[in-house]
Specification:
Elements (H helix, E strand, L loop, with lengths): L3 E4 L5 E4 L2 E5 L4 E5 L2 E3 L4 E5 L2 E5 L2 E3 L4 E4 L2 E4 L4 E2 L4 E3 L20 E3 L4 E2 L4 E2 L4 E2 L4 E2 L4 E2 L8 E3 L4 E4 L6
Parallel strand pairs: 3-6, 4-7, 5-8, 6-9, 7-10, 8-11, 9-12, 10-13, 11-14, 12-15, 13-16, 14-17, 15-18, 17-19
Antiparallel strand pairs: 1-2, 19-20
Length: 163
């Protein structure tokens, strides 16, 4: 869904407004301090709990889809175009049993930088001070102060520091 404000006149422009959608029983978004949500970003909480701690910066065109629980710690930077989802999104089965949607929590520690167009998938814990390189696909947990990148993301170094 696109939400925007259009201005007309001698020149036209469009401003993308962040979309926040909360639906389903027991859904909630908890904001514990100052949070910045960039243009075109979407927070979609459907039956889950999304917690954003103080000084979280979410850039443009970020999609956070929460069906279970996602927690983003203090002073995190989520760069442009990141996708974060704590479920498969569709019910699937590979063994003949009835299809179900698999859901697992995502926990992002404090002072984490998630690079542009990265993907964070269900069940991932990212430790304090970690950095996800641009375009990284994170399918497994990341230790604190570790730089990971690639598809699937792998450790590049475990001595990263950033501000």
């Amino acid at each position: 869904m696109f939400v925007g404000i259009n201005e007309t006149g001698s020149s036209s422009s469009s401003i993308d407004i962040p979309l926040v959608s909360v639906s389903g029983k027991n859904s909630k978004i908890i904001v514990n301090g100052r949070v910045s949500l960039g243009p075109g970003s979407r927070l979609d909480v459907c039956g889950g709990k999304l917690t954003l701690e103080d000084k979280v910066f979410i850039s443009n065109d970020v999609n956070i889809i929460c069906h279970k629980e996602i927690h983003i710690g203090r002073e995190c930077t989520i760069a442009t175009g990141v996708l974060m989802r704590d479920s498969d999104g569709h019910a699937i089965s590979t063994d003949g049993t009835p299809p179900t949607i698999q859901m697992k929590e995502i926990k992002i520690g404090e002072n984490v930088w998630v690079g542009a167009k990265s993907i964070i998938l269900k069940g991932v814990n990212i430790g304090d001070g970690a950095v996800i390189a641009a375009g990284g696909v994170v399918t497994k947990s990341v230790e604190p102060k570790t730089l990971v990148g690639g598809n699937p993301a792998r450790t590049i170094t475990n001595t990263v520091k950033w501000k």
